[in-house]
Amino acid sequence: MQIAILTFDGFNELDSFIAAGILNRMAAKGWKAHIVAPAPCVTSMNGVTIEAQRGLEFAAEADAVLFGSGIHTRDVARDEALLGRIRLDPARQLIGAQCSGTLLLAKLGLLGDRPACTDLTTRPWVIEAGVKVLDQPFYAEGNVATAGGCLASQYLAVWLLLRGAGRADAVAAMHYVAPVGQKDEYVARALASVEPFVVAPAAANCLPA
């Protein structure tokens, strides 16, 4: 499973790094979550500069794609040339977005008539784009998922694990990263938030059996 975590200038570190950290717990089973960016280096909203692991075009090849958020997402949403570099296929790929990343899904026409989740700041912009915004942390329909709130990145990671691997792997990954003394509580909350929206892995024909 090759995963592209789309990360733009002004990115929120929690969105990109939490998802990457959880998903790369599956490295022994051949999974790899890549930080994917439109330039060789991108700088976070707090001034942390990182090197991209893959270029933006890698998103078209990936089995799954996650859109992180950031303080410049509205600028990205207006940049037709940049958006044109993102070529995705929701019939083949699992696609998720968090917070202002949901606005990019809307601009790319990937939400269809689905409702979506986003953060409170981005909510009016997503509504303006014609999307019904839900007051909940996670929602998925078919191969497209959205999440709202920085720490909801764990729910996108759990969704990919449930879809592409299985419940045991999702539980193991969340149990590892959850705080000591609260592990069962964190695992239970993640499963309760995500499992109602999960369909069988076979529904995504890009995924291994």
Side by side, the strands of the main sheet go 5-2-1-6-7-9-8
Mean pLDDT: 94
Strand segment tally: 9
How many H/I helices? 8
The end-to-end span amounts to: 11 Å
Helix content: 25-40%
The largest β sheet comes out as: 7 strands, mixed
Structure, briefly:
By secondary structure, this protein is an alpha/beta fold.
List keywords for this structure.
disordered C terminus, single chain, 8 helices, 9 strands, 7-stranded mixed sheet, alpha/beta, 209 residues
Strand-helix topology:
Elements: E1 2-6, H1 13-23, E2 32-37, E3 41-43, E4 49-51, E5 54-55, E6 64-67, H2 73-78, H3 80-83, E7 94-98, H4 101-107, H5 123-128, E8 138-141, E9 144-147, H6 153-164, H7 167-177, H8 183-194
Parallel strand pairs: 1-2, 1-6, 2-5, 6-7, 7-9
Antiparallel strand pairs: 3-4, 8-9
Helix pairs in contact: 1-6, 6-7, 6-8, 7-8
Can you tell me about this structure?
It contains 8 helices and 9 strands. With 209 residues, it is an alpha/beta fold. The strands form 2 sheets. Strands 5-2-1-6-7-9-8 form a 7-stranded mixed β-sheet, with helices on both faces. Helices cover 33% and strands 17% of the residues. A hairpin with a 2-residue loop joins β8 and β9 (144-147).
